[in-house]
Design brief:
With about 375 residues, the chain is an alpha+beta fold. Helices cover about 55% and strands about 10% of the residues. The strands form three sheets. It has a four-stranded mixed beta sheet, with helices on both faces. Helix 4 runs parallel beside helix 6, helix 7 (about 135-145) crosses helix 8 and helix 15 (about 270-285) packs antiparallel against helix 16 (about 285-300). The protein is globular, with a radius of gyration of 24 Å. About 30% of the residues are buried.
Length: about 375
Amino acid sequence: MTLTALMVTATMMAQGVAFEPEGTTLEQASAKAKAENKLIFLDAYTQWCGPCKMMARDVFPQEKVGQALNPRFVSVQIDMESAYGAPLAKRLQITAYPTFVIFNADAQEIGRFLGGSNADEFIKRVEEKSQDNGSSALEARWKSGDRDPQFLQEYLGTLTAAYKHQEANDVAEALLAGRAETFAADSVLRVVFMRNITNPFSESFLYTARNPESLTSQIGNRPVEMKIRNVLGTYQRQLINEENGTATLDEKRFNDYIALLKELKRPDAEHYRLVTLITLAEKQKDLQAYLDRIREYLATDGLDAGDMQLAQWTKPFTPQVDAKYRDQMKAILQQRVDDIQSGKRQAQSQAGNMRLSRPTDELLRMLIDAMDGKLPQK
């Protein structure tokens, strides 16, 4: 090794993770990794993610973390909600943050793991996920048409550990093929269905949604209903395509999805339809359409947006937004506050399993002020 190379290596070792400049793409990282005979480390983050910020602040700058990564990896950080990151997140099936992905130099995934940790645990997990676990060989067998049940179980375990939900669903469908009416009686296949089926148009899901009693007799009504809701809700989020900062609705898939909800006689069909359109309008930054869909949701019989849902819907309305849109959202919030104050409805005391520290009507009043740039009094 030359003196210059030694000096560069020493400099790299004396710092934290040497991430590529902001805006570096996975394709650019791949080109550099090929030139330097390295692997690729991807930190997939979002601006709002607390553990992402903790890792960037407390873990990545540590010298020992840099010593572990810099000699072996081209490291890149990508905001998964950016114009480049959003379609990449969809392609890589990244839905939780932070997600850390290890690729070979050709940008083929080797392994991944999720969540914040301390430096020692992080280094250990990078090392574990950098090892070739034979997943490429398993993938080759799958693509060649191998459908041996024992192999499918092994491959499914690898995909589940890698959080590859779409591929795991496909393998689970193969395991359950022809067994939609009988899998509930098999404890192993029940786990395959509950953990891995994400496609609402799959044979096993359709049978279960239409005939839930076969599975509820084994595991109870609540887990089955929660599974059905989870599959429908997860698929709903896949109906919006984001590319180069533009969001569009996949009309065919959306119409097929709505037809399925009606065919299943789901009482929450309108919830899924309107939430999809509210999300689309937000991503398209069409605030008038966003407000119109929220009002439609609130006016629809059988639907009831909670106070915390209303609070979440205020996210786009910063003080910099045109007052004509802010005033409409403020009126929606004020109507809810008036309904609570008059006794027409009660304020929420919990959000999920978390008990709220103050009444939600007080929170909504604070949000009304915040939209006008008024900070709450201490």
